[in-house]
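Slide 14.
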Amino acid sequence: MELKGIHHVSAITANTQENYRFYTEVLGMRLVKKTVNQDDTSMYHLFYADEIGNPGTDLTFFEIPRAGTTYPGHGSISATALRVPDDAALTYWQERFNEYNVEHDGISEQAGRKVIHFRDFEKQRLTLISDETNSGVPGGNVWELSPVPTDKGIIGLGPSKLTVPDAEPTIRVLTEVLSFQQVASYPSPVSGQPDILVFSTGEGGTGAEVHLEVREDLSRERPGRGSVHHVAFRVEDEAELAKWRDRLQEARLPNSGVVERFYFKSLYFREPNGILFELATDGPGFATDESPEHLGESLALPPYIEDQREEIEAKLQPVDTERSQ
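Slide 15: predicted structure.
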């Protein structure tokens, strides 16, 4: 059994309308599903991705309107990377960020790859990472109606950075329970801190890595708007997900068991430093209840909560996701 890479990353926003504007108009991602958090249907759950929401391309957001400020710290997913095709694309993005007044740190190098670290309007910690030298998990395809050129656009999720106070328990879960192997390391940008460790699974590459940072000098993160809720890893199908459930039980890691999410099936657990991991199947995908041409245009509800539509819609603030083109 081997995980195939990053499946999706789910974060928190306090402002769905501005979130939609930033991720579609500035970053040029496609809203492939506008739905609700199935565990709390009073909040939106938005999925941004490539042209059809291929596994490994989804950055999702739960809306919590009263979410407070995030106070960064350990026990967190402290950065999310988004893949672009090559180094030349980063030059385009640097100019685009300047045009749209996006806070960024310019082009730099991280573990032998060109990157741009930047923040969204809620200080969500993000990184554009170049696939110039990538030979691992392939990326997705930029939507042809994106405001960003298809040869420059975001093609998927890159490495998730985990920040912990003690590396060993997390390393044991990554390598002994899950299918990751340490493949590299690189210097911490914070003076006096240990190197950041790179772990890879499946075909490897930018779409199949987690980067592990140790920060004993920090307190535990207080999450809020602009923080990450969980990272999900790719599993082929439900049969394999059941095997992962059994492995977690053998490792005495409490977990949710298999959960029906309609667009995929999931399993949730926390590693010893408290970070929430999800394992999610590649299918059936987002075109299950909407045509590929009209993904994300209206509120989609799985059939098992469709009978609650009127009640659910009454609790949600309307969000204009009508496309200009």
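Speaker note: The domain at 6-315 is CATH 3.10.180.10 (2,3-Dihydroxybiphenyl 1,2-Dioxygenase; domain 1).
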